[in-house]
Specification:
Number of strands: 20
Largest sheet: 6 strands, antiparallel, barrel
CATH architecture of the largest domain: Beta Barrel
Helix content: 25-40%
Number of domains: 4
Number of helices: 7
CATH superfamily of the largest domain: RNA polymerase II/Efflux pump adaptor protein, barrel-sandwich hybrid domain
Order of helices and strands: HHEEEHHEEEEEHHHEEEEEEEEEEEE
Strand order of the largest sheet: 4-13-16-15-14-17
Radius of gyration: 47 Å
CATH topology of the largest domain: OB fold (Dihydrolipoamide Acetyltransferase, E2P)
Amino acid sequence: MNKRKKMVIWIIVAILLLAIAFFAGYILRTPGTQHPPSAAESETEAEEATVWTCSMHPQIKLPEPGQCPICHMDLIPLESGSAEEGAGMRELTITENAAKLMEIDTAPVQRRFVTANVRMVGKIDYDETRVSYITAWVPGRLDRLFVDYTGVPVKKGDHMVYLYSPELLSAQEELLQALKTVENLKNSEVQVMRETARSTVEAARAKLSLWGLTSEQIEEIEERGTADDNITIYAPTGGIVIHKNAQEGMYVDTGTRIYTIADLSQVWVNLDAYESDLAWLRYGQKVEFRAEAYPGEIFTGTISFIHPVLNVATRTVKVRLNVPNENGHLKPGMFVRATAEARVATAGRVMDPSLAGKWICPMHPSIVKDGSGSCDI
């Protein structure tokens, strides 16, 4: 009996202890019953809660300050709650120190056309429409070449060649004889003979004109009354002598080329464009380019022709620019680097608003007019 009483007493004591412990825990969990932490405890907890990260490698998060294990930059404190706020507001939030270290530049959002830059290389060349030739219009001998080396600038009307031609001598004699006949028949009563003589004079003048004599030279022959066995050939246009095709003393036939003159006030720039870039290039498009001879200087040209045939070896297409060259800085043969900027509209169309409503010659696309009409060339 004594053992049973002791066991009952121990069970009752254990139940009471459990009840007291449960009641004490309930009281401690009730709000207002907890004691506020001290200042030292709060500072300790704040230091423990600070996370240190790298501005260049945000995946690095360490509990203590130091250096990034990847780039060895000083760690910066990570603001609590910045990641959650940024994710909810679709924005990137970083500290002022991090922004300075990352060197971030910002710009306001704008609505504008998308642009595509096409880079090309090429060379400067002569404008073929501004190249002229001085040829022998009659057979003869070159007694004198006034321009005796290439590169000489000449103006329209400058004397170039002193040519001896027996055929030209006989044509002058025909003109003088026709003039004498007109003078002799001046008082004739036969009108047919007078008209025939005048027609012969006009035919002789036209023959000399077609053989290269100017109207001033023909008038000089008529006033002098004697034929000249030599004739001076003048430059039909101004420019630079780029080829000297003959020598003094040689005999030439009709059509023999003596000089080649190029007007360099406007030049061509022939560029190589890859076939993948042709979709961004259009006639009339402005292109900027730089020449190796003039670093820092930017030149501007206009696309005037896109070659219809692809170079199978380089997979490129020739694109030609018309470029003004009044000061003569651009010289044929110079190497250039060009950039064409294309504005892309809806559905990927390349825009060129400056040509809207214009009229272009299909054979000479450099001729652009506001209305319909005939090509100037």
